TrEMBL record:
This is Alanine dehydrogenase. It catalyses: L-alanine + NAD(+) + H2O = pyruvate + NH4(+) + NADH + H(+). The active site is at H96, D270. One of its GO terms (biological process) is L-alanine catabolic process. Substrate binds at R15, K75. SMART domains: AlaDh_PNT_C (SM01002), AlaDh_PNT_N (SM01003). Residues 4-137 form the Alanine dehydrogenase/pyridine nucleotide transhydrogenase N-terminal domain. InterPro entries: Ala_DH, Ala_DH/PNT_CS2, AlaDH/PNT_CS1, AlaDH/PNT_N, AlaDH/PNT_NAD(H)-bd, NAD(P)-bd_dom_sf. Residues 149-297 form the Alanine dehydrogenase/pyridine nucleotide transhydrogenase NAD(H)-binding domain. It comes from Flavobacterium arcticum. The keyword Chaperone does not apply. One of its GO terms (cellular component) is plasma membrane. Its EC number is 1.4.1.1. NAD(+) binds at residues 134, 198, 203, 220, 239-240, 267-270, 279, 298-301.
Length: 364
């Protein structure tokens, strides 16, 4: 199969859909790999790295789309790419169709086979191609939170680890899922006192089992949240209710109970955020202040660390790319139901209920 990897052109996206190691695997299986020149540069991969493993570099995005039977990407195609997607071409990437009717219509019109990373789902219900980005965001949440606690950028002026004779900072984590656990691990590693809240006792039991004693768990309730926001320096929003907007666990009114310079990091901003005062920000201008409380609400946190994020993403996508390339999409999706759940639009037809429901028949 001919596999094409275009350079990402969405604003602020520096990852790439395939590493040289992935290209090496595909070439070894006898496939042809076409990469757009400089596509890997921002992730630390030079054109020569791809050439050395047998990939062919193409000068333009048009050439990559024209050549490929399967396009492997990171983000959804943007408007200028819509006309490049060909009938019967496999496009394997994050699509998030429910957030864009224009994209959905364009992919229906293209006649392509659109397989979305975010709906590939194993039999236990986990989303293996989303997990690594939550891992990155969870770990970054503490790195960013620790930085924004510094006084010159309006934080409380607290060092999370403390020093001998001075107690450590206190980190409150709302949600003990993938993001929450990774955040707890990083905060604990810095020596902070960590409180983790969740409504799922299984998750709290897990955290309690695997974390050191300075990470404590409590059931998530309005009462407990109100109690802890008064004494914690850094608060991480990491809740998820699948398919729904995140609940507002901290209201605007509650900000007045916090100490000036407390830092809120709302990782759940991409689901609407779990603080009432959350609004999406960018890496260029990541924070804003309300009632002296610093808000960090970057919607694509992994984008700031493309080297790590590209490796983390391609570690999990490569086995599926190989299945698609070796078997073809029909055989691969029927043999591997987890991959089959990634099919969203097939040759002009929406094949997943969530998209049909989102647009409420408007696409018919
Ligand atoms: N901003 C970014 O760059 C970025 C990157 C990756 C993920 N995310 C987002 O981070 C969020 C968390 O992702 P995840 O992978 O950890 O999800 P997850 O499903 O693994 O964990 C979510 C947790 O929230 C808990 N929860 C639900 N309601 C709660 C409540 N009222 N109080 C406390 N806990 C509650 C659930 O029980 C679950 O344990 C999602 O919205 C995800 O989209 C954002």
């Amino acid at each position: 199969m001919k596999i094409g990897v275009p350079k990402e052109i969405k604003n602020n996206e520096s990852r790439v859909g395939l590493t040289p190691a992935g290209a090496f695997e595909l070439v070894n299986y006898g496939h042809e790999v076409y990469i757009q020149e400089t596509a890997g540069e921002s992730s630390g991969f030079a054109d020569i790295d791809y050439r050395e493993v047998g990939a062919v570099m193409l000068p333009t995005i048009e050439a990559v789309y024209a050549m490929a039977d399967m396009i492997v990407k990171v983000k959804e195609p943007i408007a200028s790419e819509y006309p490049l997607v060909k009938r019967n071409q496999i496009v394997f990437t994050y699509f998030h169709f429910a957030s864009s009717e224009a994209l959905t219509r364009a992919m229906i019109k293209s006649g392509a086979i659109c397989i979305a990373y975010e709906t590939v789902q194993d039999d236990e219900g986990t989303l293996p191609l989303l997990t690594p980005m939550s891992e990155v965001a969870g770990r970054m949440a503490i790195q960013q939170g620790a930085k924004h606690l510094e006084k010159p950028i309006k934080g409380r002026g607290v060092l999370l680890g403390g020093v001998p004779g001075v107690p450590p900072g206190r980190v409150l984590i709302l949600g003990a899922g993938v993001v929450g656990v990774q955040a707890a691990k990083m905060a604990a590693g810095l020596g902070a006192h960590v409180t983790v809240l969740d409504i799922n006792m299984k998750r709290l039991r897990y955290v309690n089992d695997v974390m050191p004693p300075h990470v404590v768990t409590e059931f998530s309730s309005v009462y407990n949240i109100k109690k802890h926001i008064k004494t914690h320096d850094l608060i991480i929003g990491a809740v998820l209710i699948p398919g729904a907007k995140a609940p507002n666990l901290i209201t605007r009114e509650m900000l007045k109970d916090m100490r000036a310079g407390t830092v809120l990091v709302d990782v759940a901003v991409d689901q609407g955020g779990c603080f009432e005062t959350t609004r999406p920000t960018t890496h260029e201008d990541p924070t804003y202040i309300i009632h002296d409380i610093v808000h960090y609400c970057v919607a694509n946190m992994p984008g700031a660390v493309p080297y790590t994020s590209t490796l983390a993403l391609t570690n999990v996508t490569l086995p599926y790319i190989l299945k698609l390339a070796n078997l073809g999409w029909e055989a691969a999706c029927s043999k591997y139901p987890d991959l089959g759940r990634g099919l969203n639009i097939v040759k002009g037809e929406v094949v997943i209920d969530e998209i049909k429901e989102t647009f409420d028949g408007a696409l018919v």
